[in-house]
Amino acid sequence: MNRLKVAIVSESFLPAVNGVTNTVRHCADRLLAGGHEVLVVAPAPGLASYRGAKVVRVRSFGLPGYRTFSVGLPDGAVGKALADFEPDVVHLASPFALGYVGLRAARRLGIPTVAVYQTDVAGFARQYGVPGDGLLDRWVGHLHRRADRNLVPSTASATRLRRLGVDDVHLWRRGVDLSLFDPAHRNDDLHAAWSRRSSGDPRVVVGYVGRLAAEKEVHRLEEVARVPGVRLVVVGDGPERARLERALPEAKFTGMLSGRDLAGAFASLDVFVHTGPHETFCQTVQEAQASGVPVVAPAAGGPLDLVRHGVTGLLFDPEDPRSLRRAVAVLGGDPDLRARLGAAGHREVQGRTWERVVDELVTRHYPAVLGAHRPAQRAA
């Protein structure tokens, strides 16, 4: 395919750390490496360029109760940036607020759009006590019905969008950095420090990696910490950290980690646990599997595609208050099962590279809308 000009309008980008940012970063990396031109439009604050690609920052405000999460505001800079860049396609990353502005601008300019559904906005809002989840769902459906092509990371996400009246839905999963997340990065000294206790056998190290925020239902880590013989390790940061540290004085909190430090932490766990049932994909499950660590995840959303119960991990019923604790106890008490599930999960993710995933955009999804390039029309 000829070199493309791709404008990515994202609800989040560096320095924010979350799934949307991570996906956009990998997309930009691979597109730039392939010789394509990239423009990123994202909420302020942040750098004005990324690996030589221009980043247009728009006005934003911090989400109440979660001030480090910036929400982009309507801004005329979006339309101007797209008109000046003249992209072949506009890639809308988890469109909601800023994505709506990007969609309107693209339609006015006659530029085809690919929208990537990545955030359960209604579920997110419910966790923060924001009313109107039905209205939020209708808004998400409204946006995606007006995009030329819609991509989802899981079968659960596809079902959700179709229930919102979106017919044009295509599965586009996530990659994992197999050179970074690998069992070879296990640190025996680190594991020993985490598992050590003053007397008796070492404890089983059970870890959570991710944002410490209400939508992740991290309060359920208290259930994990009560499993006998378990040492809980919490990797990440967020608005719930202070409360969790008070509630879990015996747990180890590492703060946010990245790169080799994160890979070493993942590989040094005995069990990985994810608590939230609202994930459209759940990237940390893949990263744990790539690290050779057995997974416990909710039987809801994205993990249903990633975890084969009893084969590559264990799924718990998020509606059963005892199910998570039982699953952790089963793995905690059976080292052979841990080894078998960890090895199977590791095999499962081989080949799921970001390069392969982003190349699918270039060879399949972008071309599908380029052939349907339309004249400028009225805004959405």
Q: Which regions contain 5 or more consecutive residues with pLDDT less than 50?
A: none
What is the CA–CA distance across the termini?
A: 30 Å
CATH class of the largest domain: Alpha Beta
What is the rounded Rg? 21 Å
**Please, what is the CATH homologous superfamily of the largest domain?**
Glycogen Phosphorylase B
How are strands sequenced across the largest beta sheet? Answer: 3-4-2-1-7-8-9-10
- What structural class do you assign from the helix and strand content? alpha/beta
What can be said about the biggest beta sheet? 8 strands, mixed
Q: Which CATH-level-2 architecture of the largest domain?
A: 3-Layer(aba) Sandwich
CATH topology of the largest domain: Rossmann fold
Treating each run of at least 4 consecutive H or I residues as one helix, how many helices? 15
Average pLDDT score:
91
Number of E strands: 16
Strand content: 15-25%
What is the helical fraction, as a range of percent? Answer: 25-40%
Give the CA-based shape: elongated
Overall description:
The chain is an alpha/beta fold and 380 residues long. The protein folds into two domains: 5-175 and 353-370, Glycogen Phosphorylase B (Rossmann fold, 3-Layer(aba) Sandwich); 183-349, Glycogen Phosphorylase B (Rossmann fold, 3-Layer(aba) Sandwich), CATH 3.40.50.2000. It contains 15 helices and 16 strands. Strands 3-4-2-1-7-8-9-10 form an eight-stranded mixed sheet, sandwiched between helices. The chain has a six-stranded parallel sheet with strand order 13-12-11-14-15-16, sandwiched between helices. The protein is elongated. The model has no long low-confidence stretch (mean pLDDT 91). One of its GO terms (biological process) is carbohydrate derivative biosynthetic process. Residues 203-345 form the Glycosyl transferase family domain. Keywords: Glycosyltransferase, Transferase. This is Glycosyltransferase family 1 protein.
